[in-house]
Amino acid sequence: MGERFTVDVGSVGHGGFCVARVAEEGDRVVFVRHALPGERVVAEITEGTEGDRFWRADAVEVIRASPDRVTPACPVAGPGGCGGCDFQHASLAAQRDLKAA
C-alpha cells in the first residue's frame, strides 16, 4: 500500500472504479478510483498485497486527462475524501455513459 505507478486507464468497472494494469508488476490488474477511461494517471495503491490477484488504487495525479473530466462540485470528492461521489469528476453526459456501461 502507498506505492505509486503510472498507468493507462481502460474500461469502467464496478463501484466507481476503472480497470488498469501495472506493467511493472507483470500486468497486474488494478482497479482505480477517481480516474476515467482513456486517462493516464499516477495511481496510489490503497488495497492489496504482493500475492493478491488484483489491487485497488486512487488516481492521485492526472497526467493525460479525458476530455470528459470536469472539476467536481463536491470539495471532498477525490482521494482522501468521503468516497461517496463516484464519477463526480466526469461531465454529466459521461457519468450517464459510464453508469450505463
Could you walk me through the main structural features you see in this protein, from its secondary elements to its overall organization?
- The chain is mostly beta strands.
- Helices cover about 10% and strands about 40% of the residues.
- The protein has one helix at about 90-100; strands at about 5-10, 15-20, 30-35, 40-45, 55-65.
- It has a 5-stranded mixed β-barrel with strand order 1-2-3-5-4.
- The protein starts with a strand and ends with a helix.
- The mean pLDDT is about 95.
What share of the residues does DSSP label as strand, in percent? 35-45%
Question: Could you tell me the number of beta strands?
Answer: 5
Following the backbone from N to C, one meets helices and strands in this order, namely EEEEEH
Number of helices: 1
Main sheet attributes: strand count, strand direction, barrel closure: 5 strands, mixed, barrel
Distance between the termini: 29 Å
> Which blocks of ≥5 consecutive residues have pLDDT under 50?
none
- Helical fraction equals under 10%
Instruction: Estimate the global geometry from the Cα principal axes.
Output: globular
- Our Rg estimate from Cα atoms comes to 13 Å
What structural category arises from helix and sheet content?
A: mainly beta
Mean pLDDT: 93
Side-by-side strand order of the widest sheet: 1-2-3-5-4
